[in-house]
Specification:
- This protein has 16 helices and eight strands.
- The protein is α/β, with parallel strands linked by helices.
- The longest helix is centred in the middle third of the chain and has 20 residues.
- It is globular, with a radius of gyration of 20 Å.
Length: about 375
């Protein structure tokens, strides 16, 4: 049975951040208290954001910067403590996936008495939150996570050696303003890894156990939109950012209903322990996981066609070329991963809710084989 649900009002296109105040007005907020959570102080100078500070308009705005990537439980607790007294009606999260992870998490935490990090960890682990006390609006400044259209957030817990998830069906964004002009200043490496992250979201949504007709259509559209413009992105063509923004948004809408699978599961400890950017980590795993999944992927030719490849080998070489052209390593060895750590990383790579969402059952032996194939294959293939 096919079921699809995504209530996010999506506004996409160059300059669409100008719609922010109209969207806030439409929400009819009882106290007009707006927490603007941003990745950088420059966000508060954007005309659409600065306009909210005009006292004649009646908004009660609290600006806050959150400058960390891959937010931890401790960092989330700190920003919760700083903002809980403000009790915002809405959180406007302007930034990449990390900012949106924090923004949507806060919406689930407000209204609860949490006095220390250990309590917060328990709240997240046992999902001790009900209907969110605040709503949120997503304004992405990178084109990759699609977080503006999903209802869950990733919070890292290095102390416990796990990746945690804050998820609630009532916590979809009220609206997403997907403005490619906000992403146009990204460094090339970040732009490329963000785009490849979005491709992974779409591909994994396509083959996930919970896939459905709408998600699959969105996934194929996302993959085609992004892959067709990757060379333009690497070539510095400004118009490519609009394609990346649209593709990322569609990929987010696709996996908002299916979640991700083995690629993301295996990537989490690579990011946690080796600080490999998430998009780079997950994209290096796409082809090795495709080899495992291919016999069990329905309508595989349509997916390969969208990717512009004939098989996993061609996809592997394509992803590696994108990474190297962006000045990034294309193997785990290149990112400084120690070969002797692979068995431990394989154990940590079986993330509940992701590994078991894969169309093919995977265990530590399968994951270890995937990691070994990703370790230094590119260097060997170049010399062949």
């Amino acid at each position: 049975m096919n079921r699809y649900y995504n209530p996010v009002r999506t506004i996409q296109g160059p300059g669409c951040i100008a719609e922010l105040e109209n969207v806030l007005t439409e929400m009819d907020l009882p106290h007009k208290r707006v927490l603007v959570l941003a990745w950088d102080m420059s966000v508060f100078d954007l005309p659409a954001v600065a306009a909210l500070a005009d006292p004649e308009k009646g908004w009660d705005v609290q600006p806050r910067c959150f400058c960390e990537s891959n937010p931890t439980v401790e960092q989330l607790f700190e920003i919760y403590q700083e903002t809980r007294g403000f009790a915002p009606d809405v959180v406007v999260a302007v930034g990449g996936g990390s900012i949106m992870d924090v923004g949507k998490s806060l919406c689930c935490l407000y209204g609860r008495e949490i006095h220390q990090v250990s309590e917060l960890r328990t709240v997240i682990q046992l999902k001790l939150y009900d209907e969110p006390q605040a709503r949120w609006i997503g304004v992405p400044t990178t084109a990759g996570t699609g977080s503006e259209t999903t209802c869950w957030a990733t919070i890292w817990d290095p102390e416990q050696d796990v990746k945690r998830s804050v998820e609630c069906q009532q916590n979809y964004a009220y609206a997403a303003l997907v403005d490619p002009e906000l992403a146009s200043g990204m460094p090339l490496g970040l732009a490329v890894t963000s785009a490849l992250d979005a491709v992974a979201h779409a591909v994994e949504s396509y083959w996930a156990k919970g896939t459905n007709a709408v998600s699959r259509a969105l996934a194929l559209g996302a993959v085609r939109t992004i892959m067709a413009q990757m060379d333009a992105l690497l070539g510095g063509e400004p118009e490519a950012h609009d394609s990346m923004a649209r593709g990322s948004m569609m990929a987010g809408m696709a996996f908002s209903n299916t979640k991700t699978t083995a690629c993301h599961s295996i990537s989490y400890p690579l990011t946690m322990h080796y600080q490999i950017p998430h998009g780079a980590a997950v994209s290096m795993l796409l082809a090795p996981v495709l080899r495992v999944n291919a016999p069990h992927v329905a309508e595989l030719p349509a997916l390969l066609d969208a990717l512009g490849v004939s098989d996993a080998d061609e996809l592997e070489h394509k992803v590696q070329r994108y990474l190297t052209r962006a000045g990034l390593p294309a193997t785990l060895q290149g990112w400084g991963v120690r070969e002797e750590d692979l068995p431990r990383l394989a154990q940590l790579g079986l993330t509940r809710g992701r590994a078991d969402n894969n169309p093919v059952e995977i265990d530590t032996e399968v994951v270890l084989n995937i990691l070994e194939n990703t370790y230094s294959h590119y260097e060997m293939s170049k010399g062949a």
